[in-house]
């Protein structure tokens, strides 16, 4: 009896292993087929979607595509929400409402809510679960539920080269300059100059670049050493496999 039980357990384990591999292979196939590109837009009809851009599957909520422009070589991760207008099937006029420049990366689960104009510059990178909105609830009338009061809308502009950390929130009326860093979890509103780091709730400038003095306050860690131009991928692999020197680093 123990022998039969062991045989049954072994067969069950093998079936589970085979089933698991099949499920994962099927899901990878679904992800490839469900991804959105300029050549394979699926049901989505964006105003523009650039060469080399890919929206991973499954997508989040997407509507108002005729007023959404996405540049070249963008990466939009899974479950990212992109919306133009307060609700689907509105006529928003002749101009784009939501614009993503070239090389924009939107992390998993992020939301970009463009009820009025939202512009994201080239080469901006967003961590997961970033929330950007051009609309905020109003609560002027104390007798009415907040959700039933007409919201306030202000355009949002994010300059090129910005990095927005995980779980950051960018509120209506925000204007970020060039190469701005927004720390994880920050809540940003208002105007931020070029080459600044902002953090906190509400976000404030904690570091800025000065042409004469460099970063103020100074950076606590040295700048990373760039990879030499002549370095090949094979040489990098060989370098990574070198043994540690005696006595450690």
Automatic annotation (TrEMBL):
A molecular-function term among this protein's GO annotations: O-acyltransferase activity
Protein keywords: Acyltransferase, Transferase
Source taxon at top rank: Bacteria
Gene Ontology CC terms: cytosol
Matches recorded under InterPro entries: Hexapep, Hexapeptide_acetyltransf, Trimer_LpxA-like_sf
Family of the protein in this entry: Belongs to the transferase hexapeptide repeat family.
Official protein name in the record: Acyltransferase
Native species: Streptomyces triticagri
């Amino acid at each position: 009896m123990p022998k039969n039980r062991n045989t049954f357990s072994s067969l069950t384990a093998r079936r589970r292993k085979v089933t698991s591999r099949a499920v994962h292979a099927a899901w990878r196939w679904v992800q490839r087929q469900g991804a959105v590109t300029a050549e394979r837009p699926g049901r989505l009809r964006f105003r523009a979607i650039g060469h080399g851009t890919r929206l991973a599957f499954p997508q989040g909520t997407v509507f108002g595509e005729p007023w959404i422009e996405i540049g070249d070589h963008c990466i939009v991760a899974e479950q990212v929400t992109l919306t133009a207008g307060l609700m689907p099937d509105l006529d928003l006029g002749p101009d784009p409402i939501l614009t993503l420049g070239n090389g924009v990366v939107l992390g998993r689960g992020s939301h970009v809510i463009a009820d009025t104009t939202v512009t994201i510059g080239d080469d901006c990178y967003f961590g997961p679960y970033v929330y950007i909105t051009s609309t905020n609830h109003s609560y002027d009338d104390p007798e009415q539920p907040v959700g039933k009061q007409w919201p306030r809308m202000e355009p949002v502009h994010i300059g090129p080269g910005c990095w927005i950390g995980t779980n950051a929130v960018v509120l209506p009326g925000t204007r970020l300059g060039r190469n701005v860093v927004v720390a994880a979890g920050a809540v940003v509103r208002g105007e931020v100059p070029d080459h600044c780091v902002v953090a906190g709730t509400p976000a404030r400038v904690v570091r800025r670049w000065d042409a004469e003095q460099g970063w103020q306050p100074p950076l606590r860690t040295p700048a990373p050493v760039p990879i030499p131009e002549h370095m090949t991928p094979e040489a990098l692999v060989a370098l990574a496999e070198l043994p540690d020197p005696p006595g450690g680093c």
